[in-house]
Amino acid sequence: MKIIIAGSGAMGSRFGLMLHRSGNDVILVDGWKEHIDKINNDGLQANLNGEEVVEKIPAYHQDDLADVDFSADLVILFTKAMQLETMLKSLQPCLAEETKVLCLLNGIGHEDIIKNYVKFENIFIGNTMWTAGMDGPGRVTLFGSGSLDLQNLGAGKEEAAKEITKVLSEAELHANFSEDILASIYRKACVNGTMNGLCTMLNSNMTEFGGTTYADDIVEAIVTEFVTVAKAQNIELDQPAILAQIKKCYDPETIGLHHPSMYQDLIINNRLTEIDYINGAIVRKGKEFGISTPYCAFLTQLIHVKEEILGAK
Question: How do the domains of the chain map onto residue ranges?
Fold first, then answer.
């Protein structure tokens, strides 16, 4: 299969490398010139579960696709949420009539943007539990195992979704066809909508936050807003199970000492965050359905204030 990885940072590089190694025709696309140049000059370098590997995978800057002769069967989106529309505009020369687009971004509601550039029946959405780390231009660390769930949005496109699932699974990415992907995405968004914003505002890891007197009350209030908005869209979530899942994040023996990705973006790398596509998305959908979301609204505002104070870009 001819596959474009659109957004070839840590996670995109993982998927690109594994799909390439399983025999697919893969190209990497990204907006980070130094990263693209390093891959083209030296190959994509990875520490893959302790093994040093180098794979020669063609890489292109997203602004240079007009001259690229590559009509994709599948595009996998891994950009930051705020970069999605710019990437979709850049990809137009590589999108054929029947190109499938799989969105694996964090957050909620990305299909509302994608459908402006891709036929709705060709849009697929998913939720991945793989991890990856970026060590520098052209180099990533890929440890552990993971999985992903995906589903078609268009009616009658189940077989196409299952074909994508097959290709991903043959690359040992452990893909599963889901009949309730929106619930999976909302469950993950509940974790991101609490741990990411709160740890970023409080300059804490998850264990430190979870050990405070007020953690449970704050998390429950935020999750209640997610669950209520989901229900308005006929998405049923098990709130006690989600709260239990979030509490597992506090464990220092597992991931509790980890700083969430939003903290890494803003506090460590001084980058703008994806808060508008996590808590901010709940605020927008809450307004659409007449649901009050004060906790998500306040946390979204606080993160934007911190972005401005820190001069994030």
Answer: 2-179, 182-310
How many Å apart are CA 127 and CA 102, to the nearest integer?
A: 10
Report the alpha-carbon distance of residue 148 to residue 166 in Å, rounded.
Answer: 12
* Fold adopted by 182-310: N-(1-d-carboxylethyl)-l-norvaline Dehydrogenase; domain 2 (1.10.1040)
Q: Confidence class of residue 296 from pLDDT cuts 50, 70 and 90?
A: very high
Do β-strands 133-136 and 72-77 pair in parallel, antiparallel, or remain unpaired? unpaired
- Residue 254, pLDDT > 90, answer no
In angstroms, what CA-CA distances link 311 with 82, 270, 308? 17, 7, 5
Write down the H helix ranges in the chain: 10-21, 33-42, 84-91, 111-114, 158-170, 181-191, 197-202, 206-210, 215-232, 239-248, 261-263, 279-289, 294-310
- What is the pTM assigned to this prediction? 0.87
Quick check: 144 pLDDT over 90? no
For residue 175, what are its two tokens? 């893909």
Cα distance between residue 33 and residue 256, in whole Å: 34
Specify the CATH class of 2-179 in words: alpha beta
CA angle 249/252/254 to nearest 5° reads 65
Residues with a known catalytic role? 188
- pLDDT score for 98: 94
Query: Closest Cα to residue 192, out of 235, 254, 135, 129?
Result: 129
Q: Is the pLDDT score of 189 beyond 90?
A: yes
pLDDT at 133 over 90: no
12 is written with which tokens? 């995109």
